[in-house]
Design a protein that fits this description.
By secondary structure, this protein is an alpha/beta fold. The protein contains six helices and 17 strands. The strands form four sheets. Strands 1-3-6-5-4-7-8-2 form an eight-stranded mixed beta sheet. Strands 11-12-15-16-17 form a five-stranded parallel beta sheet.
Length: 328
């Protein structure tokens, strides 16, 4: 049987949202070194954080900082956590309303010290300590590399993990009653891993417009790829925690082709901002996995080099080293 590749590609081009033309290259936005002038005292932002947290728990440092301009792109923030010779650097993110946040997933008990680094003077050089106590849960899933191990996957504490997965791609983009019904169904099901999309999906049974989007809208109704919508991300985080309460890993699909909103064909600069923001917000959730794309070879606006670059952005912003995959 002879396969006519040109005819096949022409047929695939007719799939709703499968083919998208790449946009013109966009200059990368560099955080501003003059975002706050010399009149602002270094490290003057009010800091809020717990004094203790469980091992494999989520530590959150919240800084009440500046909100002028566009803090999503104007400000770079990170914190380095140290314990003896160990050092873990976690990138921060802007959560709206002057909230600048850094999250840390501690993998070892004991006292950890931290200090912030930022291009915004008020957020720079803030120090503190957190005591990490006994473990809550089993920690993130790893490839089980122990000599003679019988199983492919294990949690950080060595507990066996058997991934029995299902897919609810557009689950978090449905009305609230359907999201709750899905959680009730999962509670009675045997699944230990769920694949879900960060971006909404437009395909067959997923034709509705969601209540929330990852980005804010510009004045003309288009999505502003330089400003994220914190309400959307807080909602997604709540659903990830709901899955954790059920013992289910959240396999987050970062890109897909079933798109009528233009998210699959953003510029490389916009892609990298989105991936960095996603990973910085979510890397401290122990039950997260990363899926760079579902059916990446239908995302025709991206090349293999693009996927390699995106994988690098994930790795550079994920000090935990969550499992990462890509789906053809």
């Amino acid at each position: 049987v002879r396969c006519d590749a040109d005819a096949l590609l022409a047929d695939l081009a007719g799939v709703d949202g499968a083919a998208a033309a790449p946009k013109e290259p966009e200059p990368r936005i560099v955080p501003r070194s003059d975002y706050e002038d010399d009149s602002v005292a270094r490290g003057s932002a009010a800091a809020s954080y717990p004094g203790s947290v469980a091992r494999y728990g989520r530590f959150e440092l919240v800084l009440a900082g500046p909100s002028h301009g566009n803090p999503f792109t104007d400000v770079e923030l990170s914190a380095t956590f140290t314990q003896g010779d160990a050092a873990v650097t976690c990138g921060g993110f802007y959560d709206g309303d002057g909230r600048h946040v850094v999250r840390f997933l501690p993998l070892a008990e004991g006292e950890w010290r931290f200090v912030t680094t930022s291009t915004a003077r008020s957020l720079d050089g803030i120090e503190g300590t957190v005591v990490v106590g006994a473990a809550a849960g089993h920690g993130p899933v790893r490839v089980d590399g122990r000599p003679g191990a019988s199983y492919h996957f294990a949690h950080a504490d060595g507990t066996r993990h058997v991934p029995l997965g299902t897919t609810c791609y557009a689950w978090t983009h449905q009305p609230e009653h359907l999201q709750r019904a899905t959680l009730a169904t999962l509670a009675a099901a045997p699944f230990t891993k769920l694949r879900l999309c960060v971006f909404p999906k437009s395909y067959l049974f997923n034709t509705n417009d969601p209540d929330r989007y990852p980005y804010e809208r510009a004045a003309d109704g288009s999505f502003d790829h330089t400003r994220f919508d914190p309400d959307y991300w807080r909602h997604l985080e709540g659903r990830i925690d709901d899955l954790a309460a059920l013992g289910i890993e959240a396999d987050l699909i970062l890109f897909h082709a079933y798109d009528r909103w233009g998210f699959s064909a953003m510029s490389a600069a916009a892609d990298d901002r989105y991936v960095a923001y996603s990973v910085r917000r979510l890397q401290a959730f122990p039950n997260v996995w990363w899926a760079l794309a579902n059916e990446y070879d239908l995302v025709w606006s991206k090349t293999t080099d693009d996927w390699e670059r995106i994988a690098g952005v994930v790795g550079a912003n994920d000090p935990v080293g969550h499992l990462t995959s890509i789906h053809n």
